[in-house]
Amino acid sequence: MESHHKILILDDETAWLEVNREILTRLPSKPETRAVNTGARAVALLDAEPFRLLICDLKMPKMDGLQVLSIVRRRFPELRTVVLTALEDEEFRSRAYALGVDLFWLKTDIQQNPQMFLDCVESLLGRDMETGFRGIQSKSLMDIIQMECLSRSSTVLRITRGPLVAKLWIQEGELIDAEAEGARGEAAFRRILAWKSGTFENLSAEPKRERTIFKSVNALLLESAQNMDEAANPTGPDSIEEADHRKTIWKLALVAREGAEFVVASSAERQNEVDAWGTQNAGQLAAWTRRVAEVAKRLSDRLEAGPLLYVVGNSVERQVLLLPGGEKSYLVAWPPDAPADQLFEKTKKLVASWDS
Amino acid sequence: MGFLTRFFKGHAAVQQLPAGSLTVNRDGQVVTSTIASGYPQGLLRDIVRDVMLLFRQAREAQMPLAEFSIHFASLRITAREMRGGAVIFLSPQTVPTTPSQPDRL
Q: Where are the domains of chain B?
């Protein structure tokens, strides 16, 4: 039987509840919507029935939206939350994100661009619940840290997982400090890496923060991967979530250890299946990989040149090697100064370990 | 003599691999070529079209390439981007082209 997600709308203004319900009927997934006008009723309803998403106003009598959200975050950590308010105050936005909301929308913005709001809500409804860090879709925390480091950013990442809050200080692309669960430095970083899901936000950089971490992010990732492997329960199978998380850490550690810049593994038949690390441009790179495979096959047939072995390319920024496989093709990028004569073997080795 | 040729007049259906280089302008027209003139021009046009396509699509994928080589079992096509056009080298391979294959003793 086809099941529809359920959305709960909380707003003390009845007119807005109606507007919201009307807008949400345009969602392609046709979710079931319920509406309540007080925080107490919302919490009671969430207790009684499973909902996928809560759309919550902030300014309400008795129990305001922030109070509702803090209760919801503790009691229903899997529930997606969207703030929809008329309060154009950055402080409220910041406080809402600190409570772990997925989206913060102004009512005026919805009136101007309802389609974008619908796209965001649809994306939240469709996203898998189990793992991943909200803030950037489908990115793991390691991806986010690596992106900040690769782009030589200076920022403070505040990460929230239910009641737990952690912070990572990144200065000019280097991780300099971490704080989580009462720990600081490398120990805190390792604890954060063990979190499988959460939300994060970027705060202003703190260049004067005392440095407690002196190892590179890659070295810490490798250590964490090793620790997780040793700590894995040898007597019983991991849960799917734990196994996925360990696999994620291992893949990232593998890419870091081999010195590759990114890896994109794509299936020729199932175009939506793209497994990528180290790049934000996975979809386009996977499309290019498939196109090269098509072109190579066509040329091979026309010229009678035999099967495609591999494709290698280079630019000022990087070298890439495309390795065709039975089910998947792999595009691996290497730094421009990596020895060209070793790329093929290094790529083969990395690819062999990738799905093992 | 002549008995066999009477029955087996056709040439063996083995196509020779192209060898040499081509220079192509930004419009995909061949400017210079050292490929044997007997080689089918249609096949050369296919190579040029596909090479230019891959350069363009690499740019669209935000991964512009200055050079790439497609390694087939018996042919290597190397293309170098040149002011919007390309110079293309076609090198038949007599042994599989694995770059780090150990030297034979």
A: 20-92
